[in-house]
Structure formats: structure tokens, C-alpha cells
Design a protein that fits this description.
Blueprint lengths: L2 H7 L17 E4 L2 E7 L2 E2 L2 E2 L11 H23 L5 E12 L7 H16 L6 E7 L8 E9 L3
Parallel strand pairs: 5-6
Antiparallel strand pairs: 1-2, 2-7, 3-4, 5-7
Length: about 150
Amino acid sequence: MSFDEKLKKLGIELPVPSKPVASYVPALTIDNFIYVSGQLPIKNGKLIFKGKLGKELSVEDGYKAAEICAINILAQLKAKLGTLDKIEQIIKVEGYVASVPEFTEHSKVINGASDLFLKIFGEKGKHTRIAVGMASLPLNAPVEISLVAKIKRE
């Protein structure tokens, strides 16, 4: 089953990729790697979750926010590559969590993205990762995630 078919089977519809809100590109390919800029939990042009983990939001909210970020990453990948089937391996996921200083469950939040990549890509979805806490993120988002993947050589 192709990765694009796997999305359909899981009932995931990719949105139109959001445009940059500052001076950067959403995705860049270099050699056979693709780098996707940080994606926020935006759906239909609106930030779905706002605030900090450990204050306004729970770990479950953060997990869902990370999952939305991952879907937005997939949309950027598909827009740049034409199909997710060109992905050879997810290499690295960088997860940033806006949280109160006492919050320590950043990894559980970023699992929202990691778990989705594993469901879609299987073994090719296994990746290295960083999950860190931040004082704040753009637009008062609770989570921002970026990704590096290897592209199949044609």
C-alpha cells in the first residue's frame, strides 16, 4: 500500500499547505533530503490550540496539537514532492512545546507527531527526535514541529 493510500485508509485528508508568515520557505530540498519548516497546529487557517502546556492545555491537548502539526508537515511534503511515496525515510523530528517551567512531559506531547509518522510510514517513519520546552511560540501556539526526511533517488 502506498503512503498516499495509507492516508486515505486512516481517514486523513491533507489540507492546502499554509503559506509562510515570515521570511522563509515552507520546504526545501537539498540533494536527496527535504527540510520542512516548523508547522503549527493550524486547521482551515485557524490556530486550533492556543496557550501553554501545564497551564491552559493538557498533555492530551498537546498530543492532538502535535498530530495536527504532523498533518501540516505531510501537506508540505506532498506539495513539494507531488506524492508521499517519494519519502525513503523520516530522519528527524524537532518538536517545540510552549509550556510552564514546571512542565516535563514534552516527549508525550511530541508523540502526537511521531505516532502519526509511524502509522503512515511504518519502519520508514522511525526517526531521531528532539522535544524541548519553550517560553513561547509564534501566534501563542502550544506546539511547533519541523522535519527532515530522505527522498528516494529517481
